[in-house]
Amino acid sequence: MNPATHSSHRHLRRLRLSSSPAGRLILGISFAMRRLSWWSLRHGGLVVKRLFDLVAASVVLVLNAPLFLIVALLIKRDGGPVFFRQRRIGLHGREFMMWKFRSMCIDAEAKLAELIAKNEKAGGITFKMADDPRITRIGRFIRRTSIDELTQLINVLRGEMSIVGPRPPVPREVALYKAEDRRRFLAKPGLTCLWQIGERQGGLFEVSDRNAIDFEEQVELDVNYIERQNLWHDLRIVIKTPPAMLLGK
Predict the structure, then answer these.
(1) What tens digit of pLDDT does each residue of 226-236 get?
(2) Which of 7, 57, 97, 241 could form a cystine bridge with 156, CB 3.0-4.6 A?
């Protein structure tokens, strides 16, 4: 049977079914099942990713509660608030408030303008300084071990971030973006990503120095992740994150 004949027969069958209540019910169920199948193919991966985020974030928060309490007391002893909230840009360019343990002095944002000239990152979009005078004593430790980032699990539970995804930039950086740089907003931002662990060539055991990756390559790695993201890839990145942290990469 050629395609035209098959299509004609299918059309006639639908007309016959639509002439009775039972037939219309069958057509409705068939249409709903097709819609569900299409939705599953298109969004199923996102549902699995969200479930993974919720379970992982909840487990890590519970297991690390004693550590978080100790860190909070040490930060409080240093003076000032325990947490630092900063405006970040996430999925589709939407703003949200990201949580971190405070690792800098209280007026760190105000002092940034004085230090911009000492930025070690080429291009000046992101900021990095080896001996940033704004970092507190406890701040050096929690930044070195990335403990300050773990409070972003709150953002994960709120649905503003994911465990794995492009790191969310601050508005000051986004204002300097070119159109192609905004491609990283096509996925929900995450706690860790390819360039955070230094995976540049896609090697299974590859972990390299993230500080050697410039902004343009960060964007390319983020886009590479977005185009081929799946649960297996996310698990690989998660597993490789602790070694990258411990090695100071």
Answers:
(1) 988 888 889 99
(2) 57
